[in-house]
Amino acid sequence: xxxxxxxxxxxxxxxxxxxxxxxxxxxMVESGFARSKNAVNILSKNFIVFAISSLAFWAIGxxxxxxxxxxxxxxxxxxxxxxxxxxxxxxxAYSGVYSAMxxxxxxxxxxxxxxxVFAGTAATIVxxxxxxRIKYISFIIFSFILVAVIYPITGHWIxxxxxxxxxxxxxxxxxxxxxxxxxxxxxxxxxxxxPRIGKYRDGKVFPIPGHNMSSATIGALVLWLxxxxxxxxxxxxxxxxxxxRICITTNSAAIxxxxxxxxxxxxxLGKPDLSMTINGCLAGLVAITAPCAFVxxxxxxxxxxxxxxxxxxxxxxxxxxxxxxxxxxxxxxxINGIFGTLAVGLFAQDIFSPGTTGNGLLFGGGxxxxxxxxxxxxxxxxxxxxxxxxxxxxxxxxIGIRVxxxxxxxxxxxxxxxxxxxxxxxxxxxxF
Amino acid sequence: MKKIEAIIRPHKLDDVHTELQESGFSGITVSEVxxxxxxxxxxxxxxxxxxxxxxxxxxxxxxxxxxxKVDKAIEIIIAKSKTGEVGDGKIFILPVEETIRIRTxxxxxxxx
Lengths: 432, 112
What we know:
The structure holds 2 protein chains of 2 kinds. By secondary structure, chain A is an all-alpha fold. In chain A, about 65% of the residues lie in helices and about 0% in strands. Chain A has helices spanning about 5-35, 40-65, 110-130, 135-160, 165, 175-195, 215-235, 240-270, 275-290, 295-320, 330-345, 370-400, 405-410, 410-415, and strands at about 200, 205. In chain A, helix 1 runs parallel beside helix 3 (about 110-130), helix 2 packs parallel to helix 4 and helix 11 (about 330-345) packs antiparallel against helix 12 (about 370-400). The mean pLDDT of chain A is about 95. In chain B, helix 1 runs antiparallel to helix 2. Chain B is elongated, with a radius of gyration of 17 Å. In chain B, the strands form 2 sheets. A 4-stranded antiparallel sheet of chain B has the order 2-5-1-6, with helices on one face. Chain B is α+β, with helices and mostly antiparallel strands. Chain B has a single domain, classed as Alpha-Beta Plaits. Chains A and B meet through strand 2 and helix 10 of A and strand 3 and strand 4 of B.
């Protein structure tokens, strides 16, 4: 067998494993940012969501996303990865129904595994914004539909050879495909659920502090590590120059995000809030996800720096309009998913990935690329807003999406799971 | 027999308790409490929203002793926990009706 196939496959599988590991990262960040009485519930959501996602993506998600079909969704090889396919053959040698993926020199199951962990990431983004008040079963059902239908359709437009790809819209590792799709669903979820009891009273915002900053920090670093799979892995090829460069653009955005979010919180709010620092790191990473292969290291520092500032204002802003997001998922994934996508239109340079994006606005390429990016942001946004709203509303009217007031006060660990996370710790009584 | 309840600053526990032990007080119970008297709480800020922490962490120490040892205990507690700043705490003296050692079922002063 050709060495390239071997190296590429090892690379794809290894980076996919890193992205898989991000499920731990999300579990730790989210549970750390929430109260201890809901820890079991949040950990459970993050655990089960990957199981649901794996099933949904295998059952139909992959087929809708990568199957040959229309410009809007796949029509062939829809179910159970059943379409014909002779990967790792590529180009003219490829014969099968997943042509959108025929450029990658790895076996079908490697392609599937890699794309699966990305789909799982989108689903788990939702769990943070809806934390501490969503019914477990409603979250499970929504997640299944997200990965079976919503994510694959928008994904088809961009990575499945659909209309946005044909237009010239570029999203290297998924600022739109993964992060803002997850973000839009998180937004509608948070809106249809309503804020946690006691969060907004008499026109004031009441903080509900997380119970474990150690956990949140572990999570943030695990996510950062996982991103070294997310971004460089999206080459799906062990191409030394580009994977090394993408590691650096990725890291640069993360550190810049940390520095500016910390500075912004320090100046604006008086102290360097660790939770804002963590959000800043993740915001930088989300923002660089689309442009990581197309921009210089210098640009990635700027992109991360801007993301870190944006996220602090976004966290405060969503509270001002009374959309309760316990972990800052909207600021990190939605707002910076959009920003990262648009950043491609600003900072892309043809030299990095010749023949793909061309130059962005700041490098003499004019408004063409930026316009395409904007079209993508708006269309994916509109579609995801509409369809996710419909699903949340449907669930709300049928089985309900929010736990009872009594349950929310007592904690979802008891109400949804009949157990506690820390049964032998002394109980903190009713301060929050 | 009297019960002494003292609310003290948490970091003073070691000094107070060591001295009490060396002075022959044989038992003590400690619990973590929150409260306030004249000492005000402080503000914290989390993700852009300010809130007051009104209840300040303190320790409550409880010990039961014969009446003639009460003054000595108070002297030790004050000497080892006073800082002179608002928030040093309070001591309460309560009468004790009966004391029983569970293991031997002794009562009264013999049970202390």
